[in-house]
Design brief:
There is one protein chain. The protein has a 7-stranded mixed sheet with strand order 5-4-1-6-10-7-11, with helices on both faces. Strands 2-3 form a two-stranded antiparallel sheet. The chain has a two-stranded antiparallel ribbon with strand order 8-9. It has 7 helices and 11 strands. With 234 residues, it is an alpha/beta fold.
């Protein structure tokens, strides 16, 4: 198996949670959201190191969490940037030279199944997804495209639409190249895959799980608690 690094951007403020604290530090079933996320990567035998990207001023708190929960795969904490793009970019600069594959995963996605993490890593490590892969799920609803005045312009073909999730996994050189190119051309995109795609690479979809939600709103937080309860987490 290749040398694999997990990059966990956890520098977002999460204003839609309507809380003063970073949403990733909110207590979910007795542990901070971020701890649930890190435990998945810590327990994965394919992951050699985890680079945690934290907001400026929150590095010491993250170090205390690492010590309290006895994480052994986090050699360093990187300070995040002004947005997710710059936070991941900073994280990529902090990975070890030995790293060959990078798995980028949102710190606010604590419900990822370890089996899905291992599945997507295997796809990239075995060259089944040579340029990279993302977890995603099919769109269930009908999607409308609107124009000026919120007038419907058309109905998109649902069979071709997928909801992108994380982790998104790529060979290190490909992801670093895509980020450098985007930085030079002042392109940001909405996820890591969009940067790789515009670099001419082929990103493969790996079917994920609808429970792998990103906690963004109070409703998401409540749903995450219910999902953990259903999984037997007390």
């Amino acid at each position: 198996m290749h040398n694999i690094t997990g990059v966990i951007p956890a520098a977002g403020r999460g204003s839609r949670m309507k809380k003063d604290v970073n949403k990733q530090f909110l207590m979910l079933k007795g542990k901070p959201v971020l701890v649930h996320t890190l435990e998945i990567f810590e327990s994965c035998p394919f992951i050699q190191e985890i680079i945690l990207v934290a907001s400026s001023g929150e590095e010491d708190y993250c170090r205390r969490l690492i010590k309290e929960y006895e994480f052994s795969k986090i050699p360093r904490i990187i300070t995040g940037g002004e947005d997710r793009f710059h936070s991941v970019l900073n994280g990529l600069k902090g990975i070890s030279p030995q790293s060959e594959i990078v798995a980028v995963h949102d710190g606010a996605r604590p419900l990822l199944l370890r089996s899905d993490l291992e599945k997507i890593i295997k796809a990239v490590a075995t060259d089944d997804a040579q340029d990279g892969a993302i977890l995603a799920v099919p769109v269930k609803d009908t999607i409308k495209e609107i124009g000026e005045g919120d007038i419907v312009q058309g109905t998109l073909d649902r069979s071709k639409l997928w909801i992108a999730q994380t982790p998104q996994v790529f060979p290190k050189e490909i992801l670093q190249f895509a980020y450098r190119k985007a930085l030079e051309e002042n392109f940001r995109g909405t996820d890591d895959a969009s940067l790789v795609e515009r670099s001419g690479m082929r990103v493969k979809i790996i079917p994920g799980n609808y429970e792998n939600i990103k906690i963004t709103t109070p409703e998401d937080f409540d749903l995450a608690a219910l999902i953990l309860e259903r999984r037997g987490y007390r």
